[in-house]
Amino acid sequence: MKERGITLVELLVAIFIFAIVAAIAMGGYNEMMKQSDIVKRGAGRTREIQSAMQRLNLDFTSLEPRPVREPLGDALQPALRSDARKEQIAELTHSSWSNPAGVPRSTLQRVAYRLEDTKLIREYWLALDRTMDSEPETAVLLERVKRMELRFMDNNRTWHQQWPPLGYSAPDGPRLRPIAVEITLELEDWGELKRLIEVSG
Question: What pTM did the predictor assign?
Fold first, then answer.
């Protein structure tokens, strides 16, 4: 019996079918890689937000009743001051400033938060009572932030938009602390997030 070879038409059909299967497989692979990238970006963003909220939580939980001196004169800045009308969202003194290198310095730290464009900036100073030439260390805590608002609860369970409370003029004003802080962050991609923090002590 005479053997029959593959005709040109059959070869072209086979190549055509192979090309279709390869195109389908490549499309599936590309879609899988795209989904993988989306998942990775989402996970990275989640870690960024969690890290920022943890930093805020640590700072406000460990809020200390330690005012600081103004760079000029003997006037005191409150242990915590916050006014929504100001560029600086909050400035405060907190404890538990880690010191793994054993540098001779206080475990208290003065920090400030502000929004610059859509970046949440955290600043801190190396000394509590700073001078005119003291410059803060600055870091971007979180990006794509549209808004940050704070509310403060006093000992009477009353909420205040600023701290010290408006009109409060008692002698303990510079050392006054709230018992709780509510933080609201509005993000471009996550919408509004709220966190209620209890101030220790």
Answer: 0.77
pLDDT value for 107? 87
153 Cβ neighbours under 8 A, 6+ residues apart: 159, 160, 178, 179, 180, 181, 182
**What contacts 198, CB < 8 A, 6 or more positions away?**
61, 179, 180
Q: Characterize 120-155 residue by residue with b for buried, 16 or more Cβ atoms within 10 angstroms of its Cβ, and e for exposed.
A: bbbbebeebebeeeeeeeeeebbebbeebebbbbbe
Question: What is d(CA 165, CA 59) in angstroms, rounded to the nearest whole number?
Answer: 20
Token pair of 103, please?
A: 């540098």
Residues 6+ apart with CB under 8 A from 192: 184, 185, 186
Half-sphere exposure of 125 (CA within 13 A, CB side): 18
Q: Are the C-beta atoms of residues 88 and 113 closer than 8 Å to each other?
A: yes
How confident is the model over 45-65, as pLDDT tens digits? 999 999 999 999 999 999 999
